[in-house]
Amino acid sequence: MTSSLNPYQPPQEHGAPVEPPSDFDAEGPWRSGTVLVTRKGASLPPRCVKTNLPAERTLWCKVSWHPPAFAWTMLAGPVYVVVALIVRKRARIDVGLTGERYRRFRLLHSAVWLFGGLSLAPIWFGGTMLLDGSRGYPLVIAVVMAVGGSVMLLASLVYGRYSAPVVGVQKIDDRFVWLTGVCEAYLAELPPWPYS
Hints:
Layout: E1 30-32, E2 35-39, E3 43-48, E4 57-65, H1 78-87, E5 89-97, H2 99-118, H3 120-131, H4 139-162, E6 168-172, E7 176-180, H5 184-188
Helix pairs in contact: 2-4, 3-4
């Protein structure tokens, strides 16, 4: 008598992506709860991933991910950047968007770049005023400009990271990508991920 239940197998974390065997060669995409699973480099069905309406535009998205175990390196500052660049996994995905969603994405993307670029001017002027005390500017103005520009730059980076992306990434392995932020109606039309 054989059973598919292995009593010695460690418990699976609920909602964690399960990797398929290496000989799994079916085409996707699939749904795994509220997550879309697809192959790296895949073009998704021609529907908007946010509204499930017919897609008018296709957006080429480069996504990256690194294992959360490396998040502790954020405490070390620049070490995190180096570690994240070394261990990250990347993928390219083509997603469909309606015209309205595409324009919204472009507007948010442009705003992030604009405010990030504009924040460099007060950082530079405030820094030069602090370094060159002979200009006669009050110290408070220089500090306010440098700190205000830094806060503006940080805010644009955080806004760009959490508000501008079309889809989020839960995980990337050597063959597949697990994407979040896809509407439920879009996911409902996909077959279930066989390894959930």
